[in-house]
């Protein structure tokens, strides 16, 4: 989370395009990035000497301010799903979601998708390693984007996750996804998380079924 998302597409094959949101200089992007810093700093700070009493008071003040300006949840849900909003609030790529890394996923000319990221403290499972559920989250979403890129998408019906070796925190990781086949409404998609050296830490096989949940209106 301390590593700002690389929006340049550097390291991606020529002709790759971002499929998820890229950070803008909008107040909401900056406020959400600041909230991510707070989440990480709270985990890292010296418990005894950081005056957490005052921190709690100030953070509650900010939360109250935001709540006072929140429309009805139903209205916000409609707004969330409009336009580019589709990729701005999810818990993986959402630049308006402070719990998202955020990951930027690129569509590659060969039909697959890829994102690169460094995962840090808030997502720790075993010491120094990415939590297995977080790896599954990253891959489920990346497979969903791979389906979008391939032109036929659906809801996750099954996600078979294999953990090959611990996934390191604080090191660059590559998240890959590719649609393999479509059989009627059934879509099969695979993906993996690799280290910079290309070692596979986690691989997944997903079954998606072409079914849409209506967007709130
Ligand atoms: C490019 C732009 C970028 C965009 C970014 C945004 C990307 C967003 C990415 C978001 C990514 C996040 C993704 C998420 O988080 S999706 C959220 C997590 N998933 C769910 O909540 C899904 C909940 N389940 C359902 O809604 C339905 O049960 C589904 C959709 C799964 C099936 O639906 P439905 O009930 O209508 O299906 P059917 O009964 O007519 O069966 C149809 C066929 O499928 C076969 N079958 C069914 N279920 C299973 C199963 N579990 N295993 C094996 N097979 C199964 C079935 O045998 C039959 O096969 P056949 O008899 O025809 O051979």
Outline the structure in words.
The protein is of the alpha+beta class and 217 residues long. The chain has a single domain (17-209), classed as Roll (Thiol Ester Dehydrase, Chain A). The chain is built from four helices and seven strands. It has helices spanning 27-44, 52-68, 73-80, 132-150, and strands spanning 17-18, 105-107, 113-118, 155-163, 172-183, 186-195, 200-209. A hairpin with a 4-residue loop joins strand 6 and strand 7 (200-209). The chain is globular, with a radius of gyration of 18 Å. The relative contact order is 0.15. The structure holds tetradecanoyl-COA (MYA). The site of tetradecanoyl-COA has 20 residues, from helix 4, strand 4 and strand 7. Tetradecanoyl-COA is lined by residues 19-20, 86-87, 140-141, 144-145, 148-149, 155-158, 184-186, 207, 209, 211.
Q: How would the blueprint of this fold be written?
A:
Elements: E1 17-18, H1 27-44, H2 52-68, H3 73-80, E2 105-107, E3 113-118, H4 132-150, E4 155-163, E5 172-183, E6 186-195, E7 200-209
Antiparallel strand pairs: 1-2, 2-3, 3-5, 4-7, 5-6, 6-7
Bound molecules: tetradecanoyl-COA (MYA).
The site of tetradecanoyl-COA (MYA) has 20 residues, from α4, β4 and β7.
